[in-house]
Amino acid sequence: MEVILLERISKLGQMGETVKVRDGFARNYLLPLGKALRANAANKARFEAERSTLEARNLERKSEAQKVADVLAGKSFIVVRSAGETGQLYGSVAARDVVEILAAEGFNIGRSQVHLNTPIKAIGLHDVAIALHAEVEIKVELNVARSAEEAERQSKGETLTSADAIYGIDEDALRPEDFFDPEADRDNEDEA
């Protein structure tokens, strides 16, 4: 199906372009949300008549998105999750979690605006892309850690995936005598 785009849609085209899309995409997404019109002579004339209004509305949305982007730019958010000693999370941080974190900070972002290819499954610093508008995309940093203290250490550049980094223990220097009493084994042998 051919449609006339009423706004810029990433990976599809600019406002005013006539593009060919799959029928389902047009019927279920573009047409009901008012992002496109069916490409026929009447709709082309309607689009040309409303073009200046549509461009003004698009410019207004873009400027609002740019204001939010200016506030969000360079921000880092701390996410506290349970994880094993290797840094592997017991759950994951998905787009829904990112939206909840941003909402707690007062930002109204939709889940579809968060571009997270795969859920985050390890502690560390992760960049997440957020498309506030088709022409305004920013990256925010998520600091995924086991605690707020670890998040602070990670932000300073520490890697927290070993026992030494987590607990301050040097695993290589440990000996069995540090944990077990060698005399206890001899006492058990004498009793037997």
How would you describe this structure to a colleague?
This is Large ribosomal subunit protein bL9. Binds to the 23S rRNA. Pfam families: Ribosomal_L9_C, Ribosomal_L9_N. Residues 13-40 form the Ribosomal protein L9 domain. It contains six helices and nine strands. The chain has helices at residues 23-30, 41-72, 95-104, 148-155, 163-167, 182-191, and strands at 2-5, 18-20, 36-38, 76-80, 88-93, 114-115, 120-122, 124-133, 136-145. The chain is elongated. The protein is α+β, with helices and mostly antiparallel strands and 192 residues long. The chain folds into two domains: 2-66, 3-Layer(aba) Sandwich (Ribosomal Protein L9, domain 1), CATH 3.40.5; 73-169, Ribosomal protein L9, C-terminal domain (Ribosomal Protein L9, domain 2). The mean pLDDT is 85. Strands 4-9-8-6 form a four-stranded mixed β-sheet.
